[in-house]
Amino acid sequence: MLSWEEDVQAHALRQQGWSISAIARHLGVDRKTVRAYLSGEREPGRRQRTQPTLIDPFLEYCRVRLADDPHLWASTLFDELVELGFTGSYPSLTAAIRAHKLRPHCEPCQVSRGRDVAIIEHPPGEETQWDWLELPDPPATWGVGRHAHLLVGALAHSGRWRGVLADAEDFPHLIEAMDAVVRRLGGVTEVWRFDRMATVCFPSSGRITPAFAQAAKHYGVQSVTCPPRRGNRKGVVEKANHSAAQRWWRTLGDDVTIAEAQAGLDRLAATMDGRRRVRDGQRTTVEALAAAEYLHPAPLVAFPAEFDVTRVVTAQALISFRGNQYSVPPGLGGAQAQVRHRLGADELRIVTTRGAVVAAHRRAPDGAGRVVRDDGHVIALERAALNAFSTSKPCAHKTRRPPSAAALAEAAKLRGLPATGPAAHVVIDLSAYAATAARLDRAPTFESQPESEED
């Protein structure tokens, strides 16, 4: 490899009439090297590659993935390549993306970004930021509609975040998801910061609701709401939302269950604890910063918010709830009923639309696939099924019954064919209609009127 000075000297000597062999002897390099630099095949300061790099076998995969999704994060692509056997580093991947121009150009993304942003200090253990993330186009097997709901909580000081999937964004689901996130984070901070969620505060004023005030007292935290349209004020959780959407949801398969999706999200969040940080000139990681935060232990049980979800009773007198089935008395098949469950309680109740409690069961673990049945419900269902049996002769549904004559006549009319059978012998006399038509062939005149007796 020639330096810039040697390259300039080689070009100058060549213009002075030196031969390539003489220049090579003068510089102490091979003639092929001199010829390559003089022809422009090689550039100074860049060593010629003599063997394939680690990224070479994966270039086509990277090109296809970035063509399919031009906004795919390089870190997400790096995670996929590691699973495929890539042993190179993340900087080598990004360098290859730039050198080979693998990422297509996106003109709408080239926007100005010059807005000033203030720096907000977050002492350890002071603040947890919360936000709902609506994820579009969930797998059809989840049965959650057009969006899945993810609650993300992030420690403002360290940047550690965790997320939990929820069925909805109402108050009981918010409390249940928050309790799960708090236990994943390892404790409770002094302050919880939200945007203007209707389940936390009154959006018009930002004042906390009485229901959530009780939940905040249960966990021993202060609740703070952000000013409207100030997403940067809780930028830590917004960045966590971005990471969850790009590195987890964007690559989620169609055949993944909710439990598998949650497990994948937990793995991603734990992996991102290894992100490097620099604080006070010292290199550290998110995990080390989170370990130094002062977190209060979470309560032994969650805040007792009550769920009230609607379900339809099956023909087997069962109701589905959180991956399990619970029995009800017979006779309610196809009807709607309410499943009521209080967080922290071991029992759930099944209530009719009129408010009558028809069943109470001990709740099974979520997703266990159990069928919880009451002995009285089993006996009553068997008795109702036996009473429904009849000893009367069943309907002879296999008897041969061809179309009747009336049906054949109607079919002939539809086909435009002459009728057959008894309908074909019906004779209609049209002479009366012909005589009437002859009389009405001409309009009557004055001369044709009969003369009166006075004339």
Automatic annotation (TrEMBL):
SUPFAM superfamilies: Homeodomain-like, Ribonuclease H-like. InterPro entries: ATPase_terminase-su_N, Homeodomain-like_sf, HTH_IS21_transposase_type, Integrase_cat-core, IstA-like_C, RNaseH-like_sf, RNaseH_sf. The keyword Transcription does not apply. It comes from the Bacteria. Residues 120-293 form the Integrase catalytic domain. Keywords: DNA recombination, DNA-binding, Transposition. Residues 5-66 form the HTH IS21-type domain. Transmembrane segments: none annotated. NCBIfam families: transpos_IS21. Belongs to the transposase IS21/IS408/IS1162 family. This is Transcriptional regulator. It comes from Lentzea flava.
